[in-house]
Amino acid sequence: MHVLVVPSWYPTTEAPRNGIYFAEQVRCLSDHGMKGGVVYPEQQSLRRLSGPALRRKHFQTAWTNDHGVPTLRRYGWNVWWRFPPGMRLRVRSAVHLARRYVDRHGVPDVIHAHSARWAGAAAARMSDALSVPYVLTEHYSGFQRDDIVPWRWPLVETGFQHASGVAAVSASLKDALVAHDLAEASEVDVLPNPVRASLFTLPPDGRPSPPPFRVVTVAHLSPRKNIAAALEALARAFSGSTEASLTIVGDGPERAALKRQARRLGVADQVSFPGSLDREGVRAALWNAHAFVLPSRHETFGVVLIEAMATGLPAVATRCGGPEDIVTPETGLLVPPGDSAALADALQTMRRQWSSFGAADIRARTLERYGPEPFVRRTRSFYHQAQAA
Prior knowledge:
Layout: E1 2-7, H1 20-31, E2 35-44, H2 51-56, E3 61-66, E4 69-77, H3 84-105, E5 110-114, H4 119-130, E6 134-138, H5 142-145, H6 153-161, E7 165-168, H7 171-179, E8 188-190, E9 213-218, H8 227-238, E10 244-249, H9 255-265, E11 271-275, H10 279-287, E12 291-294, H11 303-310, E13 315-318, H12 323-326, E14 332-335, H13 340-353, H14 359-370, H15 372-388
Parallel strand pairs: 1-2, 1-5, 2-4, 5-6, 6-7, 7-8, 9-10, 9-12, 10-11, 12-13, 13-14
Antiparallel strand pairs: 3-4
Helix pairs in contact: 3-4, 4-6, 8-9, 8-13, 14-15
C-alpha cells in the first residue's frame, strides 16, 4: 500500500523535534512493507530565520529525505499564516506539492492528513485532484481547550466532512471531537501514536541506584506543559533534601521563569536544565532517571510518556486527556491537573514504591499497545476501511 502523508506541523531545520512523531510514523509503516511519502508546505516564523536561513528558504520547492522518508517541501515565511489568506495559500501549496509528488512516485492508494487545523482541508482538495480517498487523524489539543479561532472552522469542518476515515489519538480527544459535532462517536476510531521501540529501550547497564531519586520530564517549556507545577511539587516533597532531583529536558518561552522559580523555591541545586536534546540525548536522560513526570494542563496523547515507559520508567502524570489512556496502576500514578499538592504526594509515593514497578513489565505493557506492530496493524486496517468506504 502506498500512503501520502500531509501533516499540519512537521520537523524543520529550526525546530527539528516539531512533529517528529509524524516522520517516525511514516518510517514505521515503511519499515513494515508500506510505501510512504510526505508533502509539507513549510511556513517558518521570520523570528526564527536568520539571514542565511532566509536565503535558503525563499519559497522554493525541494526534495528531502527526512528519517528515510521521501519528503517534498515548499519553503516559505509565515507572514500571513495566522489569517485566512495564509491558510488558503498553504492548502493550495499542498495540492501543488501532491501533484509534484505523484509525478515522481506515482498516485498513492490513500492520503493521510494529520490534524484538521489545515491539513484536513488540504487532503480533501488533494483527494479530489488525485481521485483517491483520504483519512484524517486528529492530534490537536485545541479541540479539548475550545481554542479554535472562528475563521478556521470552515477549514476544520471541510477536513472532517469529506474524510473516508476519522481517528483521534486518545479517547478524550475523540470525546472532544464528538462534542464539537465534527463526527459521530461511531465514526471516530482511536488510533494512538506508536513508540520508537528500537530507540527507547531498557538501559543496557541498568539505572543508577538512589539517592538521589531522579525524576525527569521532557517538554516544550510553555504554560500548557505546566512545568512550574513540577517545581512546586519538588519543593513541597523534597525541598533542601539530597534525596531527590529533577531534570527538565527541553526549551521554550518559560525557561528563564522556571529557573527563577527554582531559585525562589530553594530547589535550584536539585534541578537541572540541560535544554533541548536530540533523540539519543533524551534517551540518555530517561536511562539516568527513576521516574518520569508529566504535569501538563492538556495533552491529546503524550508521546513522551510512552517513550519514557518504553525504557521501563514508571510515570506520574496528570489526568489531562491523553495520559488516562496510557498510565495504569501497573505503570504509574495519575493526579488532577494543576494540583501541586497531589503531585507532590505522588512523587513521594513514587520514591517509596518505584522499585516495585518492574521495568521489563512496564516496557512490555507499553509495547503491547503502542509498539510498532500494533500500530501498523491498526493503521493498515484504518486504510483498508477508507478504501472500502
